[in-house]
Amino acid sequence: MKVFIDPPNSLVLYDLVERFGHQPLSAMAAIQERVDNLEVDMPPMNVSLDDVVKGLKYAGVEVPSGIRGRLALWGPMIEEADAAIIMDDCPYSFGCVGCERSNLMVKYLIKRRGIPALHVSYPEDDEQATNFVAQTKEFLEGLQ
Amino acid sequence: MSAERETRLLMISPSSMLTPDQLVRMVHSFGLTVTVKETCYGCLIEASAETAREVLSRVRERYPNEVFSKVRAYRCSDPVRCRAQHGTRPGYAQLEEEWSLLPRIQHGLEEVEKGAKYVPPAEKKRIPVNDFKKICEAQR
Lengths: 144, 140
Prior knowledge:
The complex is a heterodimer of chains A (144) and B (140).
Chain A: E1 2-6, H1 11-19, E2 23-25, H2 27-38, H3 49-54, H4 65-80, E3 83-88, H5 100-113, E4 117-121, H6 126-142
Parallel strand pairs in A: 1-2, 1-3, 3-4
Helix pairs in contact in A: 4-5
Chain B: E1 6-12, H1 20-29, E2 35-38, E3 42-47, H2 49-62, E4 67-72, H3 93-114, H4 129-138
Antiparallel strand pairs in B: 1-3, 1-4, 2-3
């Protein structure tokens, strides 16, 4: 099954989803499509003007273009996903920093789609990490 | 994702005794058609999607809980990103943050392998008013 991960660039979540036998939907794959096919030639910008227009499907015109650009990447993946794993209470520099509104919109879009979603807390110690891995494993193994 | 090219990032957990050099030598020893670039945190591999997964599964056979992996959007040494070619050099904030988290995840994976189950955390309750009063009075 296709599992959307939030933060979408997380190594830990990507690895765990793949390890337990599902296909992670990540920001890297979406950017790779643009790098390989659309020839994005102005990094660190990973989207084109057209993408920002496509983002209008997920966020209103009054929303800053940065959010629309991000949602142009992540929105189609959320539509494609069969399930989602969301990490809450992350430190400031974990995940796609710089725009909390985008992260809130992503959570809202996942909730609106009604797909099975697991909310996990950022593990602060070994005990929490064991719980985090066990919870993720149970969730992923339970997806049919 | 493109089926032709898959660039993967292999990151070694800081609590592992494996070094990036050993990891790169191991990947080379598989004898598969793959480009490998040694980095400070592990290595980057670039190959067809099938070969990249083959490399990952062989690395996981040997180091199941010590090496973590995700795909990377840009190619190895992509001129627009690579420091050696004056790319945009955006830094490694996310990788650094996750690198420090990996020992805990490694511990979690090992415990789960041993049979650890998810234990829901104890529910936080509000403190009764009388108990709170006692605390306040003790602090006077």
